Automatic annotation (TrEMBL):
Protein's UniProt name: Sulfite reductase (NADPH) hemoprotein beta-component
Tree of life domain: Bacteria
Domain Nitrite/sulphite reductase 4Fe-4S stretches: 119-273, 414-549
UniProt-listed Pfam families: NIR_SIR, NIR_SIR_ferr
Organism: Sinobacterium caligoides
Amino acid sequence: MYVYDDYDRQILTDRVKQYRGQTDRYLKGELSENEFLPLRLQNGLYIQRLAPMLRVCVPYGMLNTKQIRKLAELSRKYDKGYVHFSTRQNVQFNWPALEHVPEMLKELAEVEMHAIQTSGNCIRNTTTDQFAGVSPDEHEDPRAYCEIIRQWSTFHPEFAFLPRKFKMAVCGSTDDRAAIRVHDIAIEIVKDANGEVGFRMLVGGGLGRTPVVAPVIKDFLPKQHLLSYLEAVLRVYNQMGRRDNKYKARIKILVRAMGVEAFSEAVEAEWAHLKDGPATLHEEEFQRMKSFFTAPQYKQLDNEESLSAVQAQRAEDIAFDKWVSRSVRTHKVAGYSSVTLSTKPTGVAPGDVTDKQLEQLADLADEFSFSEMRTTHSQNCVLADVETTELYALWKKAKAIGLATPNVGFLTDMICCPGGDYCALANAKSIPVAEAIQRRFDNIDYLHDLGPIDLNISGCMNACGHHHVGHIGILGVDKKGEEFYQVMLGGNSGLNTSLAKVLGPSFKAEEVSDVIAKILTTFTQLRNDEELFIDTYRRVGIKPFKESVYA
């Protein structure tokens, strides 16, 4: 992972000192609420329903064990002993006192972490595949490009006050595991006929009130032009994006208003002034950045022997077998595996992890995965480099701390925003609905029979729970002061990204799990053999599900 130099450390030290002074002046009444607002947002601090919320940046989801232990310590000292993994791979504290935040930022800076640009109308954390660098289906490791974008975009003076927040994601594999097509800019690493690495650029995706799958605006961008082209896209958006209505300010609205062709032409015209200029990336810079993401000291292991040993353990222990089938993924290095640890046992808000679990996760990462861990956009965590023969030992320890529920990719591995329990923007609560579904469908054998199903829940139209791209999506809505829930079907965030369609009239909270049960029953009646839910839906359409639910 990237390691700060003296220049990076001085920037963070100065920033913390600056924000401490701003906070002191606000608390003394020398700054008004409106004056303090952009200052705290630039440092990741929201004022939520019950308390401030501090969002900490986790670039491309990577954490070392020193950083994980610091997050645990801060949650214990300044919060209520837990943190929340967000869908941007960031970490959120839900209860810090305003006056404690500068000290939290100081302590985060000591482990090379910060909260800069995790909020406000600026370029947010660039996300990517949680299996970057270890996946066999990867064209190239995307993390070096993410880090280049991070360094370019952080404190970029021209893009500090965009029309709205701006999100980018990079994918380097044949599958999309980072939902890149619902980002403002999606960057796909591709190779041309000569094997040269470049990028397919998609612009204008997003969720929220107007969900859009990003269209391609450039099929192949040579990699040395990455930053100059991004700058051209951002300049067009900054100049032409709407600022009079925040609901129409995202770049997706601009792309739709102009039309993809006209928008692309505007970007090309802007790029003509920037191409081959100072922002051009040279090979030595790529190599310098890639040097931070070299492979760890893998052992030379026999893959067949490793797999054979695990197969024997799976045959003897059915619980371990189920966990491996859902949580373990093939690694590109022989004798190693990647492991997803579920944060979603029944009764726990998706993405919430306690301070003790964080410290235990750090211990697991030290023992099994070269002292590194990754957060995922689906609110779980990953140990990317585990010796396959150590899986059984890892499983027993993860199980003991509540992080080995074998539901990864299943119905109860849901994405869920904090909703009305915490968020001031939410129209309805998300967590109680998630818990009701978790309890109703807690039978792991039934979940295995159903197969992979993405269920995503948002407490409002801002779609932090990605409900539009869930196979089953749930949206909290307010009707004259009462909370209702709209159910939708057919969304997908992978390669074949699709947006869900609304099933029909909304439901009360206590009805939602019954509705899900009817949808699942309809699915099992209509599926062919081992057909997946999303494939059945695409084959039969929404009509039979609607008839079942509203019968």
